[in-house]
Design brief:
Blueprint lengths: L11 H4 L1 H11 L4 E5 L8 H10 L2 E6 L5 H7 L6 H13 L3 E9 L7 H14 L3 E6 L4 H14 L4 H8 L7 H17 L12 H9 L1
Parallel strand pairs: 1-2, 2-3, 3-4
Helix pairs in contact: 2-3, 6-9
Length: about 210
């Protein structure tokens, strides 16, 4: 839930549909994987705790960067990345599996080692169970708006974006592989899992080892 449209948009604050949805999932012991960027999810922490007791549950957030100068321009109106990670820490503390989609990774802005290392180091400190990279893709439906925006906002990067995304939605495989290898190396450095494995959340794993 949330990969197409965030379940915790502003209207959720008024209509509170998620509480009823979560209650139904609890009643039917239905597994859930949820992705959001919203701090509003904390309102339903009690129900997520209940669901985690009866069905597999993963709560994830997308955190593309911890660089506030980039976030304010690229994702205005969204909570800062560190605030999102703090929220995931609250879920991890009660034994809920958590993850981070490092997305979108922006060529020339957040794809370098320094930016990725900062995000993954913070994930590790927070107790996030896994992290996966997602390089920016530019679908045809948004190209006509996105590319002019890049040209105006980051004019020095525009030629690079034309090179990577001219006539295609996804960056070339060679570039994606380069980013993936860098990310994998940093993920290993910070001892963070990948979504392909059902690791215990870090705090839960530490408790298990202690016992």
């Amino acid at each position: 839930m949330g990969t197409a449209t965030d379940a915790y948009q502003h209207c959720e604050g008024r209509y509170e549909l998620m509480r009823g949805i979560l209650r139904a999932l609890i009643d039917f012991r239905n597994p859930l994987s949820l992705l959001t960027k919203s701090t509003m999810i904390l309102r339903d922490l009690d129900l997520f705790r209940e669901l985690n007791e009866v069905a597999p549950l993963t709560v994830s957030m997308s955190v593309g960067t911890l660089d506030e100068s980039v976030r304010r321009i690229v994702e205005p109106g969204t909570p800062p990345g560190r605030k999102r990670l703090d929220i995931l820490g609250r879920f991890a503390d009660i034994g809920i599996r958590t993850g981070v989609l490092v997305a979108p990774i922006l060529p020339g802005l957040t794809d370098d080692e320094e930016h990725l290392d900062e995000v993954l180091a913070a994930c590790s400190e927070t107790g996030v169970g896994y992290a996966v990279p997602i390089v920016l893709h530019v679908r045809p439906s948004i190209r006509e708006h996105f590319m002019p925006w890049v040209k105006t906002t980051y004019p020095w990067l525009y030629p690079r974006y034309v090179e990577l995304y001219g006539g295609r939605a996804y960056a070339p495989k060679a570039y994606q592989q380069e980013v993936s290898e860098r990310f994998a190396r940093l993920r290993l450095r910070h001892d963070i899992g990948s979504s392909g494995h059902r690791e215990l959340p870090r705090r839960q794993e530490q408790l298990a080892l202690a016992v």
